[in-house]
Amino acid sequence: DxxxxxxxVVGDAALADVIDATVGRGGTVxxxxxxxxxxxxxxxxxxxxxxxxxxxxxxxxxxxxxxxNASELLGTYSSDHRLAPGVYEGMxxxxxxxxxxxxxxxxxxxxxxxxxxxxxxMATGGRILHHLKAFAPDPRNTIMITGYQVxxxxxxxxxxxxxxxxxxxxxxxINAQVANLAMLSAHADADELIRxxxxxxxxxxxxxxxxxxxxxxxTLRRRLGRELGWQATVSRMNQVFEx
Length: 243
Description:
By secondary structure, this protein is of the alpha/beta class. The chain is 43% helix and 15% strand. It is globular.
């Protein structure tokens, strides 16, 4: 649909700008990414940039065994998605897959400009931690946030502009640039949810807002009532409803 097309175009442009600027400084783009779904979306975006001649000629690493396995499933079950075979093969062949932990550590030790996609998506664990420890202190590099970050996670702290985070029991300075590409998030924002709700031919009897922080959730509840006339409730932990 038009919204998806818009997100792809905007996502491509923002991604290209971040990579161009980082590579121009001689830096590395480090991307904490959810292994299933987000990593594959990023590979697709990078492939579209390469096909358009917008991707700098630097290595792309997919450094997450789970993300690699999920990517390979796209080839195994090609009839279950809409990627043409050439597109799937192109986006996967473009990246260097690193399953071995020693290979992963070599990526962190390398000073050449590159793009590193690794898990976990909120930097709560996994290989992304040693990449952040290696690349976050250098202002030439960029940490690219591509999804919602739960409060209290390292990813949320980095996205909020914290100047240091604890990794492996040590404080690591965040001197790298931080790029928050919110349009790549899988979470619809309030405007998108309202637009989706307007497509109903008849209003539901009641709506429950069950996801999100308390204040934004209540704001969406009020918007549903004000703009659509819907009866909406923000559910609380252990609250019981009779349907």
